[in-house]
Amino acid sequence: HSMKITWLGQAGLLLETEKTTVIIDPYLSDSVVAINPNNWRRVPVDTRFFSVKPDVMVFTHNHLDHYDPETAEKFIGADTGITVLAPSTVWPEVRKLGGNNNYVQFDRHTLWTHDDISFYAVTAQHSDTHAIGVIIRNAGKTYYVTGDTLYNTDIFGDLPEDIDVVFLPVNGVGNNMNMVDAAEFAKRTGAKKVVPLHIGLFDEMTADDFDCPNKIVPQFYQEIQL
Questions:
Q1: Among candidates 183, 172, 176, which has minimal Cα distance to 149?
Q2: How far is it, in rounded angstroms, from Cα 186 to Cα 191?
Q3: How far apart are CA 17 and CA 85, in angstroms?
Q4: pLDDT surpasses 70 at 56
Q5: pLDDT of 2 over the 90 cut
Q6: How far apart are the C-alpha atoms of 104 and 140, rounded to whole Å?
Q7: Which is nearest to 120 in space by CA: 99, 138, 96, 137?
Q8: Does residue 1 surpass a pLDDT of 80?
Q9: Using alpha carbons only, how large is the chain's radius of gyration in Å?
Q10: pLDDT tens digits for range 93-115
Q11: If you placed Cys at 144, which of 17, 20, 166, 179 could pair as Cys (CB 3.0 to 4.6 Å)?
């Protein structure tokens, strides 16, 4: 794999190739706690990541642990020149950050290519009705970031047949798949490797209980060993 992928916690991912740096759904604050006191961070923010200069940022839906203005403004500013891919629910919000950034309305079945990486938005079934997943292609590899979603059969018609790695939620609350359904979903995608996300930050869950033969368990703030 020529792409280095680091878990930022929750559903956040940092993707790095020789040419391009991408951040997806970063939640690097404690802003959710004001809305839900139970959802306090079990793992402190690693502020090292605020020095990353992304070329592309992707937000899959308008929930605070995916599109967090407090986190986003650490990366998106007046002169950052970032391409921001955001579905209809996020797009008007993130545009308020202004600057010389390219805000792309990235709804389902939209394709965007940036240098050596292509992004394709696919269906997600979530309480944000415009939520998306993303198919990411680079250097002959295909990655599928589901975003927050339930197991919905409409999704499979959007997916390619050559998925190398799928990243998916397994926490089973807030309209996300539980571990049993996520394992079945992952199997149906045909992905060679499965990375469980969205656990361990707002809860005491671990991926030990995720019964999936080809799982790769990520560690907070570390490169995922694909």
A1: 176
A2: 7
A3: 18
A4: yes
A5: no
A6: 25
A7: 137
A8: no
A9: 16
A10: 999 999 999 999 999 999 999 99
A11: 166
Nearest CA-CA partner of 2 in 82, 114, 111, 116: 116
Structure tokens at 23: 């951040």
208 in Cβ contact with 215 (< 8 Å): no
Task: For tokens 């008007």, name the residue.
Answer: 92
Residues 6+ apart with CB under 8 A from 178: 170, 171, 172
CA proximity to 171, closest of 197, 153, 143: 197
> What are the pLDDT digits (tens) for 127-179?
999 999 999 999 999 999 999 999 999 999 999 999 999 999 999 999 999 99
Strands 102-105 and 83-86: parallel
DSSP 98-115: -TT-EEEE--TT-EEEET
198 near 171, Cβ under 8 Å?
Answer: yes
With CA atoms as reference, report the closest residue to 209 among 166, 171, 168: 171
* Confidence (pLDDT) at 98: 98
Q: By the 8 A CB rule, do 148 and 168 touch?
A: no
Q: Tokens at residue 94, please?
A: 């993130």
Instruction: Kindly state the tokens that stand for 8.
Output: 């930022």
38: its two tokens: 């139970």
